[in-house]
Every structure is written in C-alpha cells, then in structure tokens.
Amino acid sequence: MPPEPHSTLRLDIDVDALVRNWRTLDRMSGSAKAGAAVKADAYGVGVDTAVPALRDAGCKAFFVAHSSEAATVCAHVPPDRVAVLHGPATADDVSAMRAIGALPVINSISQAARWSVGGGGPCHLMIDTGINRLGIAMSEIGDPAIAALEVSTVLSHLASADEDSTQNLQQLALAREAFVHFPDAAKSLANSAGIALGPQYHFDLTRPGLSLYGGKPRQELTAHIAQVVRPRAAIMQTRTIGAGDSVGYNGTFTATEPTRTGIVSLGYADGFLRCWSGAGTLLHDGRSLPLLGRVSMDMVVVDLTAAPELGEGDWLEIPYDLPEASKMSGLSQYELLTILGNRFAR
Ligand SMILES: *Cc1c(COP(=O)(O)O)cnc(C)c1O
Q1: Which of 39, 48, 50, 251 has the fewest CB atoms within 10 Å, i.e. the most exposed one?
Q2: Residue 124 CB–ligand 1 contact under 6 Å
Q3: Test site for ligand 1: of 85, 187, 336, most ligand atoms within 8 A of the Cβ
Q4: Which of 127, 157, 188, 228 to mutate to test the pocket of ligand 1 (most atoms within 8 A of CB)?
Q5: Helix 91-100 to helix 109-117 angle, to the nearest 10 degrees?
Q6: pTM above the 0.90 mark?
Q7: Sequence-ordered list of residues with C-beta below 8 angstroms from that of 175, at least 6 positions apart, any chain
Q8: How far apart are CA 102 and CA 48, in angstroms?
C-alpha cells in the first residue's frame, strides 16, 4: 500500500460538544423532542460523524434537503426517521425515496399528487406561514390532494426566529390555525433560534441545525452552546522579509521592518474567503498571528513575530467561534460552517 498523501488541513470535530449541544436543545425543547437538521453533510461536520453520535444520544428525527442526501443518513438510522425537506421533484424521485424508505416533506399540491400516484404512504407536510419559500398555502389545506395524504408530521418554518420580530408571533398564530386540521399528526415549527423563543413554539418536535454545530443565533443560546468545529491548517514554509517587501497578490501588505512570516496551507478554495484578508488572524496556543496581504486560492501568509519558535509542519488554528468569526468575516454562521471545503481532513 502506498502511503496516504500528507494532509495540511484538518477539521477537528468535538463530537462530545455536538452531543451536549443536542441534549441542551432537547432539554430546552421542553415536552417536545429535538430532531436534527443534517442537510449539507451535517452543515459540513460530516454525516458519518454527526448522525451516529446524535442517534446514540437519542435523536430520532433527521432532516436533509435533497433526496440525494438521504441514503448516507439512512446508513445510520431507520430510513423512516429521515425526512427530505425539498420533497419529491419527479416520479423517479418518488421511486428513489420509496426504495430508500425516507419520507418526503410534501411542499405543494403537485408534490402531494405525485406522492399519492407513486403509491402514497406516510409522509410529512410543510405549510407556509409567511417565509414564502416551500410549503402549501394556508388556503390549500382543504385540497383533496392534501386530504389524501397520510401525514406523519406537519411542519412550518420560521423566517425571523433569530430576531425579536413581530413575524414570529404572526407565524405562530398561523401555524396553530393550520395544525388544528391535522389532529393525528405530530407538529413541528422551531429551528435552533425558534427553540429559544419559548415553549409555545415547541409543539411536538423541534428541528435544530445550526446550534447543534456550535452556532448561536440568539443571545439566549450563547451560554449553553459549545464550539464543535475547529479547523486547522499547517505552516508549509517560513521566511523573513525585509522592510519594504510586500506579501501576496497585488502586494497589499508591505513590511515596515524585518518580519518572520509563515506560509499556511489554507485558501479561499477551502472556504477561507478573501473577506478575511487584512482583518483576520490565525492562532497558536492563544497567540494571535495576523494575516498579511490577500488570501490566495491555496495559501495565506501570517506574521510569526508572536510565535518565533514555529516552523514547517506546525499547526495553526483558524478562529472559528461562530458568532465571533461571523463578526470578523461578515459571513453568516451558517455560511462559515457549510463553506469549509473537502481538502479538510475530517
Ligand atoms: C435548515 C432547516 C432547519 C434547521 O434550521 P437552523 O436554523 O439551522 O436550526 C429546520 N427546518 C427547516 C425546514 C430547515 O430547512
């Protein structure tokens, strides 16, 4: 066997923190049970890492967006516990979901008809209460195509749960009105931020995603949610530049004195975007190493003045406390998680 290629990027996942976050969100959900949004490869954490851990902690409902994402989740949990949020797009998609055993979330009259024509059986139903993305309208609840469904869970989704917006109460009122029509179905409204809005938002099942992975969309969550994702990148080379030397494309940084620098294996192709240029720092043992010049596709340069002993092969931490990193980069906490590329060894 040839040796494995050496990795200079790694994503350390704190699985204990992930499990603690789920337990916290489950407890905060009161009499409701917490599920887990595991779409987009569990927000970049990796389905094969996140799903078995959440399953073993007691999580029983898993949400993906695309039907193509269902199979990897179903490898770890009973397929009927996996819900496909985008619903069935075609008749073939219905067959594919039935073959896997995952349940669609029906989002329209046409999806309802498509599911029934394909054989029907248990499914979930999304009702739009104001986000105006997917879901049937309030006025469509009485449609015969909807009445024909065997609805296991009836859902709606909050648009502004991360803010103290009047839209939250408006959506809550509409969700209550809609849910009455499905007395036998489980009811679900809250995402991570929605859990923090209070017990009236919890119903039977909550659907946290972001906060499982360390995101804190509301103040109420900040003390209770732990960091899960810690990206690290290795130094590939060091050099000492002189006063007047510039660094990187377009020479946007120029040294005013001799400076020892580290060339780090991390770039915008890995999800470390140019918005970090100038503002960002990497970390070593709590010491802050400022970025010099532009972020390139595959590398960045840091100032090693604060950590003179570091050299080739040493690992630096990318500051990824999500609210802080969001403030620094201008990216949302969701984007910061899902953007990390596949050159990170997970
Ligand atoms: C992504 C998603 C969630 C999870 O939301 P977070 O804000 O990440 O907690 C819940 N419900 C639906 C319908 C979603 O699309």
Answers
A1: 251
A2: no
A3: 85
A4: 157
A5: 60
A6: yes
A7: 127, 129, 156, 187, 189, 203
A8: 17
List 39, 43, 187, 201, catalytic entry: 39
For residue 37 and ligand 1, the question of a CB distance below 6 A is answered with yes
287 forms beta bridges with: 284
Give residue 278's pLDDT: 79
**CB within 8 Å of 240: residues ≥ 6 apart:** 258, 259, 260, 261
Please, which residues have CB within 8 angstroms of residue 218's CB and are 6 or more apart in sequence? 161, 162, 193, 196, 197
Asked about 334 being catalytic, the answer comes back as no
CA 89, distance to chain mean position in Å, is 23
Q: Is the CB of 202 under 6 A from ligand 1?
A: no
The identity of residue 43, as a single letter, is Y
Burial class (CB in 10 A: 0-12, 13-18, 19+), 136: buried
Among 221, 210, 208, 228, CA closest to 333:
210
Question: What is the residue type of 3?
Answer: P
CA-nearest of 309, 247, 305, 306 to 278 is 247
187 is catalytic: no
Per residue in 34-58, pLDDT (tens digit) is 999 999 999 999 999 999 999 999 9
CA 329 to centroid of ligand 1, rounded, Å = 22
The secondary structure element, H or E, covering residue 123 is strand 122-126
The pair of three-digit structure tokens given for residue 1, joined into one six-digit string: 């066997």
Residue 225 and residue 323: Cα distance in Å, rounded?
11
* 94: Cβ contacts below 8 Å, ≥ 6 apart: 88, 104, 114, 115, 117, 118, 119
Residues in the chain: 346
Residue 86 has pLDDT above 90, yes or no: yes
CB 92 within 8 A of CB 67: no
Per-residue pLDDT band at 95 (split at 50, 70, 90): very high
Block residue for tokens 């007395």: 183
